[in-house]
Design brief:
Length: 414
């Protein structure tokens, strides 16, 4: 017996669910228009039920592009269609819409989960978990909690079947993302039991994914690209003075974006020519040398570019009110603006502000700088984190490669 809903009923229920979840009227109208096209296509081809094969067929016919051939990340023009089709599949499989986009701050948790989430947050703070890692951890947990809430499940009502069904919604994500998500859920469920919010410890019911640990190769820029990037900055404007100083801090000192945003005026020790601050990620004090070019760029910005403001932070927005950058701002626009202006082709992979830090490490490695020194410059707690840069020096690796013909000749002589 086929328990699937006819496509017309499935679309109707999805639209009702969108309204219940308080999607905006414009968003609901976009879904409604798209589903009208889906229904018209289904009627024309005599298709009564929705399936993943039907979704792919409709997408490929409509956009003249196969889903499997879409580049990653998926171009913006295809994302709404993929999302609309995924909602049909999610509702047919789970009876609800699985949110892929997490609500931005302030996040309002479902009332039934508010107490346990607040208790879990206190426990994470007590254990000294990194505040920066908390953002990613909470996003994973929020998606799980929202999924349960849409099904009307309370903390004490979670079952192993719910865990299995939610795991199925993660299909299509990178293996490392799935493994990290399941680890977060496992930790939350273990806490929930020992804190008295659930009679069972369901952490063992969360499926385990075998994911081989590997370090992703850092993204770096070509040797001359960083200099071209800096030359492209208009240092005659206030914004250009700010951006130039920010780029130098990342490219010359290897500072993380979070540390640049959190840099206080009091951290600039002009008498000793140093920058003394506490790293946001590691939570430990670090001292950077105030190099001449970096120092003069900061002076130029503070004297002639920085708006008049009482903010204790070095860098602020240049639109009133003149406040520090937001907590989640990655300053990616700064590097893309000047890369475009300089006519620099952006290499494949992520090449945001953090890539300047990677480029510095790679350049130091090429200059035969010892790993402990590079680790100290980058603020790594150990050289293990720095060793990944060994894989970036491809020219050095090629020089170490054996010539197969020489090896075979040696074997024959032996």
């Amino acid at each position: 017996m086929d328990n699937r809903l006819p496509l017309e009923d499935l679309v109707a229920r999805v639209l009702v669910e969108l309204n219940r979840l308080q999607y905006s009227s414009n968003t609901q109208a976009g879904y409604r228009r798209f589903y009208q096209r889906v229904l018209a296509y289904a009627h024309a081809h005599g298709i009564r039920y929705y399936s993943e094969d039907f979704g792919r067929q409709f997408f490929e016919t409509t956009f003249q592009c196969a889903m499997r051939d879409l580049p990653q990340p998926v171009p913006r023009k295809f994302r709404p269609a993929l999302r609309h089709l995924r909602c049909l599949g999610d509702y047919q499989l789970h009876g609800t819409i699985v949110r892929r986009q997490i609500q931005k701050s302030p996040y309002e948790p479902p009332p039934a989960f508010r107490a346990v989430l607040e208790a879990f947050a206190r426990e994470c703070d007590r254990r000294g978990y990194s505040p920066l890692a908390a953002r990613t951890r909470w996003n994973r947990l929020r998606a799980f909690v929202d999924y349960l809430a849409t099904l009307g499940v309370s903390p004490e009502g979670i079952s192993s079947q719910h865990l299995s069904n939610y795991t199925a919604t993660l299909i299509g994500y990178h293996a490392k993302t799935v493994a990290a998500t399941l680890t977060t859920i496992r930790t939350f469920l273990r806490f929930q039991h020992y804190a008295g919010y659930h009679a069972q410890d369901l952490s063992g019911a969360v499926p385990r994914l075998r994911s081989t640990h590997y370090e992703r190769l850092p993204s770096i820029w070509p040797a001359d690209a960083v200099q071209r990037l800096l030359v492209a900055v208009d240092r005659g404007s206030p914004t250009g003075k700010r951006d130039y100083a920010i780029l130098l801090l990342a490219a010359r000192l290897g500072m993380r974006v979070g540390d640049i945003k959190a840099l206080m005026l009091s951290a600039l020790q002009w008498d000793t020519k140093t920058i003394v601050c506490v790293q946001q990620k590691a939570g430990r004090p670090v001292t950077y040398p105030l190099l001449d070019d970096v120092g003069w760029a900061l002076i130029d910005y503070l004297q002639h570019g920085r708006p008049v403001t009482a903010s204790p932070y070095v860098f602020v927005r240049h639109n009133a009110p003149f406040e520090p950058f937001g907590k989640h701002a990655n300053l990616h626009h700064i590097i893309t603006t000047y890369a475009r202006r300089a006519g620099i082709p952006v290499p494949r992979g992520p090449h945001g502000m953090h890539s300047l830090r990677h480029t510095l490490a790679s350049a130091l490695l090429e200059q035969h700088t010892p790993l402990p020194v590079i680790a100290d410059i980058l603020g790594h707690l150990s050289t293990q984190s720095t060793q990944v840069y060994l894989h970036v020096d491809l020219d050095a690796l090629r020089r170490c490669a054996l010539d197969p013909e020489e090896v075979f000749a040696y074997v024959d002589r032996a």
